[in-house]
Amino acid sequence: MPLDLLELSSQIRQMGEQLARRRADELRRLELLDAMLGDYRDRWEELAELAEGLPERVAVPTGPLDERVPPQPRPARYTALATDGAEIDPDRHGGSGEFYLINVGRVRIPYGQPEREVELRSSSSLGYTDEHLFIVDPRDPRRQVPMRDRHLDALRTVEELRALADLAESEVDEAPAVALVDGTLLFSVLEERPRDFLRTRFYTDFVHQLERLRQARVPVAAYASRSRGIDLIHLFRAVCGSTPLVCDICHGAHACAMRGLTDAQLLGRWLGPWDRTGLFRVRSNVHDPFYGAHRVYFFLLNTGDEIARVEVPEWVATNRDAVSLLHAALVDQCRKGFGYPAVLARADDRAVISLGDRDVLDTLVQQELARQGVVSRPSAKLSRKQVRTV
Amino acid sequence: MTRNGFVDHQEPGLSGEVVEASTGDFLAQSLELDGAPPFGAFVEVAGDDALTVYAVVAHVQTAGIDPGSRAIMRGHGDVRDERIYQENPDLPLVLRTTFRALVVGFADGQRLHQFLPPRPPRLHYSVFTCPPRTVKRFTRESLDYLQALLTAPEVPSDELLAANLRYVSTTTGDGQEFLERAGRELAQLLRADYARLTAILRRCLAPVEVP
Q: What are the chain A neighbours of B72 within 8 Å (beta carbons)?
């Protein structure tokens, strides 16, 4: 057995003690912060103005900080659309050559419309040409970045939204529709140098899909379960200067009271079950130049057991009816899905690539390579892992 | 009735599709959710080579399509029974009804045999509920297949046998006459086990009306 369980068990015990201490400390610090929040509760315009001038990514309030909005009654008829994706990275060690696979689960569930069909599907695509496998700098074709790891994640995120826009465009106007993806609209693209071509490549395509959703008039949202978002925390840290030694709240403590806390901890405490907070805009130097009219806003939602974060583009955030519909639909979805939107869970079911599926794919690829007379052999390292010698 | 992942079919008697096949039995996915043929019913699968396999439905199950998924309680407040399906229209696409059928014989051209066929039915071929005239034809000459039901492993064989006899007697309209013939056949097969014989026969009698 490769795990040293004896050694691990004492480490796990220490970790448990540490976590319990941290939890108690967080509660104490949240109480300290109540005073600060109370101070800024109605001065949100002042905060918003300050936020616009900050260099880091922060949340910009669009209303009182303690705004709590209960959900509207669930619409009798609505359609929930969702997509979710999974990928297989190019396998350097496998014998099947370089390729990646993206599998996107696409789901349409019409509620209260028995005459319409439910759609649970997935679409898979292989990337194997040079155009697929390398991202080329249009200004300098010698610069090529392989499509793998974080970049493949970014591509999958774009493909998820493309599939969602496809679903939205084929939607008929019979009942209001909402479109959901899992995670965030503010996905990250790693750039090695400033003004690199990678962000342009992914964000432009992503924003194009957001535009298609806007044209289709289907409000879109990204749903993050148990949000760890810290945009509002960043704002407050910028406001107070994060200088605990001279801070009224931290009283000369060795570290800032907001360290390690999340927006959900800060605002979620005030939310009753199914309530949402007001809307906050995320001001991000990375995303805003690309997103334009699709700048991202978010609200926090109490789903009974946890605080979720729901991100929407600006054209949804500024449409009161759309936000209200999304809120009501998400409440219904979380009720049906036992805390997580049912339609997203279905999309995830369709996206997951099981070990069995991977084996089938491998076999198909090997068979085709053999048919073409291409020798395919795993690397020495992989062979060693597959057959353990003693 | 909700469909079970099938496209629309209107063929009379079409009940499902073979999803697992072996010499002694096969598993079929029912055309409609909760729409499997009754326990004890005769079903048939025709091949491309004039070989038609006959079988008796021995087990019916409804569960999640994905082997890893489990159905959980969804009712709340006044949302119960059919309302649960209305509230969750995606359920029929993630649930399925399957039925296992014991192979009891086959037709090879015009000849009927009450023993195992040379090949199991083909995967993905259609399973039909046998029309009454086929049931009548299969049970007219011989009742050798009862032996197969009696000795079937991993099924409640007495219940299965009684269910099959009731099914045949009502489907063919032969009623009492068929039951008497089957009773004589069973008496031969179970001559050493009187208790079991009477237990099966009692299950075949017409239900007693509760006053």
A: 338
Question: Could you tell me the sign of the dihedral formed by the alpha carbons of A248, A253, A254, A258, in that order?
Answer: negative
Nearest to B66 by CA among B99, B93, B84: B93
The residue in chain A having the minimum alpha-carbon distance to the alpha carbon of residue B69 is A349
The interface pTM score, or ipTM, of the predicted complex is 0.79
Please, which residues have CB within 8 angstroms of residue A262's CB and are 6 or more apart in sequence? A227, A228, A229, A230, A233
Contact flag A346-B86 (C-beta cutoff 8 Å): no
Q: Does A51 touch chain B (CB under 8 A)?
A: no
Q: Are A288 and A190 in contact (CB under 8 A)?
A: no
Shortest distance, CA A108 to any CA of chain B (angstroms): 9
Q: How far is CA A93 from CA A127, A383, A386, in A?
A: 17, 9, 11
The string of pLDDT tens digits covering residues A50-98 is: 998 899 999 999 999 989 999 999 999 999 999 999 999 888 666 667 8
CA pair distance B90, A107, nearest whole angstrom = 9
**Nearest Cα residue in chain A from B65:** A349
Tokens of A273: 């079950």
Model pTM above 0.80 = yes
